[in-house]
Structures are given as C-alpha cells and as structure tokens.
Write a structure and sequence with these properties.
Layout (H helix, E strand, L loop, with lengths): L1 E4 L4 H13 L4 E4 L10 H6 L7 E3 L5 E3 L1 H11 L10 H29 L12 H22 L12 H11 L13 H11 L8
Parallel strand pairs: 1-2
Antiparallel strand pairs: 1-3, 3-4
Helix pairs in contact: 1-3, 1-6, 4-5, 4-6, 5-7
Length: about 200
C-alpha cells in the first residue's frame, strides 16, 4: 500500500501523526497542493474529489478522507488505541473528533483560505467576510476547549486520541489563519505544549 500525501496541509498532517503514533511506515507519494498537483487527470481517477490524503491499497482500492484512512489503520493495528477501546471511549472520542473537525479545524481552514493571500492558488475567489466570520467561530470554540481541558489531560478523556491529533493540527494552522490562542486560555496552551512535545508531532 502507499499513501498519497500532501506535506504540511492539515488533513495529510493528521494521517502522518496518526501513523507515527502507531509506528507504521508505508510508502508515501508527495503532492504539491499549491501547484494543484492533486487536480491532475491521474490523481482525479484515483480520487474524483481531488483531495489529499488518499490511501491506495495493493489491490488498487483507494481510501480517501482522513478519518476513514485512520479507521482502516486502527482496525489493522489496534495498539496503541487512538479511537477508543470501550463503547464509551469510542463514543466520546468520536464526539470530540467531530466537534473539533467541524467547529474548529474547518473554521481555521476557511479563515486561511479566504484571508491569506498565499491561499489564492487554492481559493481564487476569496470572501473576506466569510474568513472573518470563521475566525470568530474558531475563537469561540477555543474558549470551549480551554474550559474542557481544565478537567482532563486530553481532549476526549485521559488518553491521547485522534481528537487530540485533529485539535493539534488546527492549533498549528492558527498563524496562517491570522489567529492565536488567547493568553487567558492557559489550559489550552498547556495542552498544546504537551502535545507538541510528542515525537509524532514533529514534522519530517
């Protein structure tokens, strides 16, 4: 199998970190998203949505969408668990993963795509009002995260999970989205410092 990868872009980074946590190494093919390499005819045949990452299996099956790829590897290699082991853990991780993806990662991405001049290659029609609206949504959610992290070590409970991975990637994308964690959000800042120290989050 091989991973069609997109470097430092948020969704490829989520899969990269997930695989490092699992200790899984596979062949990777790199694409330059800014150069729109994911829009080539060959890649479109692999994934008509023209998005990265994509896991291509040995039989030619293509699995796109970040969480779907992670679920495949979680089933293939359950240890260490990153998506829960008990019904309750799985439900809580799914809940927070979904919340962070929709209410934090996506707003951060939209803010970047509609406010940063460097995003013109992937978002040629930028709508500044939409970008600023999503900045506000991201700030609101960071306040919620800070409150939640005052009572536990990780986003979805005591253990590190895919919810932490998604949250970490969103936090690392704040600067190009012209956002920052507020000074008063000390619990979120402490969490980010701890997660940033994990070997899996170092980019190679």
């Amino acid at each position: 199998m091989r991973l069609h990868d997109g470097g430092r872009a948020p969704n490829p980074r989520r899969v990269q970190i997930f695989l490092k946590e699992k200790g899984i190494e596979i062949e990777r093919l790199q694409y330059d998203i800014n150069a729109l390499e994911q829009k080539s005819d060959a890649f479109t045949r692999l994934n008509p949505m023209q998005t990265l990452p994509v896991l291509e299996l040995d039989d030619g099956t293509a699995i796109a969408e970040t969480v779907a790829i992670c679920r495949y590897f979680e089933a293939l290699q359950p240890e260490p668990p990153l998506m829960g082991t008990t019904p309750l853990e799985k439900a809580l991780i799914e809940m927070w993963q979904r919340r962070i993806e929709i209410r934090f990662l996506l707003p951060v991405a939209y803010a970047f795509r509609h406010l940063h001049p460097g995003a013109l290659s992937i978002e040629p029609v930028q709508v500044a009002d939409w970008g600023r609206m999503n900045q506000s949504r991201a700030r609101d959610f960071m306040a919620i995260l800070d409150t939640e992290l005052k009572s536990r070590a990780h986003v979805a409970g005591a253990a590190f999970s895919i919810a932490d991975i998604t949250c970490y990637v969103a936090c690392r994308f704040l600067k190009p989205a012209q956002l920052a964690i507020a000074e008063e959000h000390t619990a979120l800042r402490d969490w980010l410092e701890r997660v940033s120290a994990r070997p899996s989050t170092r980019y190679d």
